Automatic annotation (TrEMBL):
SUPFAM superfamilies: Nudix
Catalytic activity: 8-oxo-GTP + H2O = 8-oxo-GMP + diphosphate + H(+); 8-oxo-dGTP + H2O = 8-oxo-dGMP + diphosphate + H(+)
GO MF terms held by the record: 8-oxo-7,8-dihydrodeoxyguanosine triphosphate pyrophosphatase activity; 8-oxo-7,8-dihydroguanosine triphosphate pyrophosphatase activity; 8-oxo-dGDP phosphatase activity; 8-oxo-GDP phosphatase activity; metal ion binding
Domain Nudix hydrolase: 19-149
Cofactor(s) recorded in Swiss-Prot or TrEMBL: Mg(2+)
Organism of derivation: Granulicella mallensis
GO biological process: DNA repair; DNA replication
InterPro entries: MutT-like, Nudix_hydrolase, NUDIX_hydrolase-like_dom_sf, NUDIX_hydrolase_CS, NUDIX_hydrolase_dom
Key words, A-Z: DNA damage, DNA repair, DNA replication, Hydrolase, Magnesium, Metal-binding, Mutator protein
Domain of life, per lineage: Bacteria
Alphabetized PANTHER family for the sequence: 8-OXO-DGTP DIPHOSPHATASE, NUDIX HYDROLASE FAMILY PROTEIN
Pfam family for this entry, one: NUDIX
Phylogenetic classification of the source organism: Bacteria, Pseudomonadati, Acidobacteriota, Terriglobia, Terriglobales
Protein's name according to its UniProt entry: 8-oxo-dGTP diphosphatase
EC number(s) per entry: 3.6.1.55
Length: 153
């Protein structure tokens, strides 16, 4: 009698598990050395996790490569045509209610068009060491610290 019950419980656990969400985000960089800055964006108050800061990007749609997805998101969100550069790091994070996301970060140093705010509350260039001053999404916090301490880039 015990075996079927264990199977049923296992199936139920699988049915309720939220799938891993695949996200891409850009570190748009300018300047070099101590002058280096990265472009960051603040979510609108009406969005989930409103007013938190993030790197521009979003979910990978079916059939897209990560770089294609990021180029599309940067076009939609900022109106730029970006050349997606090196992969910097991948972060996994489980939000309390939203399941687990995996974010692939890519460097962007070349783009055409002017940065145009199409969806954000605010957006700005920040020196790397000033990043911890902004209230970033929880998934980004280790990366923010590493960037500020010069451990990445
Ligand atoms: N773009 C971006 N998303 C991030 C970062 N950090 C982080 O946790 N995320 C999360 O990754 C997901 C990005 O997908 P999205 O931009 O399509 O998010 P969304 O939920 O606002 O859009 P939706 O309305 O289509 O669901 C969001 O859940 C967002 O909170 C980041 O630095 N940049």
């Amino acid at each position: 009698m015990k075996e079927p019950i264990r199977k049923l419980n296992g199936q139920r656990a699988l049915d309720t598990a939220k799938p891993l969400r695949h996200v891409v985000a850009a570190m748009i960089l300018r300047g070099s050395g101590a002058e280096r800055e990265v472009f960051i964006c603040q979510r609108r108050p009406d969005q989930p996790m409103g007013l938190k800061w993030e790197f521009p990007g979003g979910k990978i749609e079916p059939g897209e490569t990560p770089k294609e997805a990021l180029a599309r998101e940067l076009s939609e969100e900022l109106g730029i045509v970006a050349e997606i550069g090196d992969h910097i790091t991948t972060v996994r994070h489980t939000y309390r209610n939203g399941g687990t996301i995996e974010i692939q970060f890519f460097a962007v140093t070349e783009f055409s068009g002017d940065l145009d705010n199409r969806i954000f509350q605010e957006m700005l260039w920040s020196p790397l060491e000033r990043l911890p001053d902004y209230d970033f999404l929880a998934a980004d916090l280790t990366l923010i610290r590493d960037l500020a301490e010069g451990k990445i880039l």
